[in-house]
Amino acid sequence: STQRLENKVVLITGASGGIGAEAAILFAKAGSNLILLARRADKLNAVAEAASAAHKAAGVQAGGKIAPIVLDVSDAKQVEGLKAKIPAELQNVDILVNNAGFVLGVDKIGDIKEDEMAAMFETNVYGLIRITQLFIKDFKARASGHVINIGSVAGREAYAGGGIYCATKAAVRSFSQSLLREVVDTPIRVTEIQPGLVETGFSVVRFHGDQSAADKVYQGLEPLVGKDVAEEIVWVAARPPHINIAELFVMPVNQA
Ligand code: NDP
């Protein structure tokens, strides 16, 4: 039951759109307090307002707190300074959702650009690791906490043209497994969620803004939407404390 999520502090990276934004709303509905991170302040603030409305609609007491914080996970200095920006009452994070990520270009390995390669690793891998490092010591000290990493089907099986993105998501999978084994003698939980095709802002970013190329990917199937994956995130977080969903692989029907 999502009752277990009431009054928990949930930190979500990449909360300004797509899966992360939908997750923010669902956690708010469940009565969780939120720390929401992303680079675009306007989008992030709009999500924070929608989450606040969800708090009110769900009858969450005035105690329901939401802190939108503009932050680029690919910037080590900004991540280092994050805790100083988190309000005192939200310092004890219970659930960390490492969701920020993107794919740039679908290129042949010989054509991959140095800056795109670096950007994908910086956000999808190093950013996720940095944010985890920031909170895992607290989780260990408190003997509680849940890290939920958003990987991808692309991390399970690589496809042609996905050279760097697939490699970043394979790294997320591998890192999640290491982390889980590192905390296996504690109550800390580690989950990696591996979605298939989800129609979000990500879909068109991938093709450098080319909408018709983006649409072609979804021919012959009904892609997942951000809310579908957000529901899975909330579901794993709300399991009884003795259950850890280590991996959750969720695909649209008809995706090969
Ligand atoms: P969106 O592009 O809709 O959302 C991505 C979010 O990440 C945005 O809020 C964006 O906000 C944020 N973000 C990107 N880079 C950074 C950064 N450096 N620092 C902080 N925030 C950042 O995509 P999705 O919701 O689809 O993607 C969410 C996750 O799901 C990603 O990890 C993606 O790889 C994964 N995924 C997506 C699939 C899909 O088909 N869509 C399939 C499988 C996995 P802002 O620009 O404001 O920073």
Which percent bin holds the helix content? 40-55%
| Cα separation of the termini | 32 Å
Give a count of the beta strands, DSSP E runs of length 2 or more. Answer: 9
Unreliable stretches? none
Shape: globular
Average pLDDT metric = 94
- The H-and-E topology, N to C, reads as EHEHEHHEHEHHEEHHEHE
Domain count: 1
**Which cofactor or ligand species appear?**
NADPH dihydro-nicotinamide-adenine-dinucleotide phosphate
CATH homologous superfamily placement: NAD(P)-binding Rossmann-like Domain
Count the DSSP helices. Answer: 10
From the structure above, extract its key features.
256 residues, alpha/beta, Rossmann fold, seven-stranded parallel beta sheet, two-stranded parallel sheet, 10 helices, globular, binds NADPH dihydro-nicotinamide-adenine-dinucleotide phosphate, NAD(P)-bd_dom_sf, oxidoreductase activity, acting on the CH-OH group of donors, NAD or NADP as acceptor, NADP-binding protein, oxidoreductase
